[in-house]
Amino acid sequence: MNCSVLVLGAGGLGCEILKNLVMCNVSSIDIIDMDTIELTNLNRQFLFSDQDIGKPKATTAIKYIKTHFPNLPIKLNPLVCDLTTLNNEFYEKFDFIISGLDAIKPRRFVNEIIAQIAHKTSFEKVIPFIDGGTEGLKGHVKTIIPGFTACWECSINTLPKGQDNLPMCTIINNPRNLKHVIEYIITIIYPLGSIKWEEDSIEDNTDKIYQNILDASFKRAKEFNIDTNELNLAYVMGVIKRIIPSVSSMNAMIAANTCNEFLKIYHDLIDVTDSGNIQANNFTILNGADGCFSYSFQYERLTDCPVCSKLYS
Questions:
Q1: Same domain for 34 and 120?
Q2: 144 and 130 in contact (C-beta within 8 Å)?
Q3: pLDDT tens, 126-171?
Q4: Which one from 154, 169, 259, 308 is the annotated catalytic residue?
């Protein structure tokens, strides 16, 4: 497949997306991620092993592919940096962008970049942006084609409340708030997956465990100069009850759907009407929490969207 694809994120989703694209024989793949591999990643990020802990995710993922598939004629390039520091010229090189990110800010950044590129080039350069996201046993895939579909910003109100507060892959190296600190403590220092958090089923020793978490949180917050004015036992318990773990099977399904959207666009299997509208569903929801089902629909663009409305004027 003669095209260049940029994969955003080399975590649970990114590893699956990269593997799928390699198996599709895409001619050129770049993958960007600023994080390093941690022990807690290994249950769902299958391109990494114990020996990779502490290494950059992007370079390690590419090394795995090159080692296990040495004869594939694919150009592979890792980037270890913050994707929001890269300019329009960098993104303009790619034919497709597929996201496996766990945060809102970089998605919004890329969405605005591809809109700017389409507008600047008078639609001579249109880069499809396919965004996958998961939250526990639920996930979504959004397909954004600048000038033809709703952009990512148009559907920002569909996000689960608080989704951007706890990015799983940044809490270890770059905690920015108390929620990141507490999640690190209960994941690395005091792994508490077996404890039931409902008040009517708390065991006798749980109060002591909570206090240990609180003490460790104070210590780590001070190490990273994070304000502890709000930090108390009630705050710790509130954060713990909101954390949703990543599920490897949902990562695999969402990654498969993002790559399926990529293939449909690449093979020109999406119809465009005379008025320039896409005749296809561009928003897919997967739900494995309430049974197992998925549905797709066409998400309408917002006429007053701050990012893409100028593309239709």
A1: yes
A2: yes
A3: 999 999 999 888 899 999 999 889 999 998 887 765 444 445 556 7
A4: 169
